[in-house]
Design a protein that fits this description.
This protein has 259 residues and is an alpha+beta fold. The protein has two domains: 50 residues, no CATH class; 200 residues, no CATH class. The chain contains three helices and twelve strands.
């Protein structure tokens, strides 16, 4: 009999509690809020588990930068003759890359210029006094501009031999740690992030313009001997540099390395 009375009393209290809950708006909102929190905990745990990259630990490692590189010849011309102030222009695009370069990671362009008549200038002399004193040649020079996609144009001027180098990678000076006579080190990034840094991507897409201007100088004439220089002759070579980065995990314990 006592157990029956306790059961009836418990049901009455439960009924009162439910009635109060239905009548109390604040209590309802609080209850829903707590329920959402409890539900979100396992959901967030599942999200975090499947959205935390497996390579995050690599940010705490240090890598030595290495890799393979090579040069591919793109365009060249020998014995290009220019008169004074004459301009020669060459325009190419990445679509003109040689076949062996189209599937490579092109990271830089290298152009070499050589004045072929530097030591044996083609100046002409005229006059009876040339047999006594013909004077001396004046050095010619070649100037111009190299313009490549996504890189500021470079001016040049050379009177014998010179080269122009332009890279297509973003500036990594703040990322790579290097010292005197040592390889480059990098830390704080995953392997995929580092490999992406060394990919030129769309930086090579666009026009490549090369402008050469002849600067012809004649030596001073002497007594009854006139000197004239009609042209300058150059050779140029345009090459593409490719690079595939390789990372070696650095173990500073006794200088051991691990891949």
């Amino acid at each position: 009999m006592q157990e029956m009375d306790e059961l009836i009393l418990e049901k009455k209290n439960l009924h009162k509690l439910i009635s109060k809950f239905k009548a109390n708006r604040t209590l309802q909102i609080t209850s829903i809020f707590v329920s959402l929190i409890l539900i979100s905990i396992p959901v967030y745990s599942i999200y975090a588990k499947y959205n935390t990259s497996d390579d995050e630990y690599q940010r705490d490692l240090t890598y030595i930068l290495g890799g393979e590189s090579g040069i591919i010849s793109w365009s060249s011309q020998s014995d290009l003759e220019l008169s004074d102030d004459e301009v020669f222009t060459l325009t190419l695009t990445n679509e003109d890359f040689p076949d062996e370069a189209k599937n490579m990671n092109i990271v830089a362009l290298f152009m070499t210029i050589e004045i072929s008549d530097y030591e044996n200038d083609n100046e002409e002399t005229n006059g009876v006094g040339c047999a006594i004193d013909s004077g001396e040649d004046a050095y010619d020079s070649i100037s111009g501009i190299v313009s490549t996609p996504n890189v500021e144009s470079l001016d040049f001027e050379y009177d014998s031999y010179g080269s122009v180098y332009t890279g297509f990678l973003d500036d990594l000076s703040d990322v790579i740690i290097s010292g005197f006579d040592s390889p480059g080190f990098i830390t704080g990034y995953t392997v995929k992030e580092i490999e992406k840094m060394f990919q030129s991507g769309d930086n090579i897409v666009g026009e490549y313009n090369f402008e050469f201007i002849g600067n012809v100088e004649s030596g001073d004439s002497t007594f009854q001997c006139e000197r004239q220089d009609q042209s300058i002759t150059i050779d140029y070579y345009i090459e593409l540099e490719w690079f595939n980065v390789e990372l070696i995990e650095f173990d500073d314990d006794f200088g051991n390395f691990g891949i």
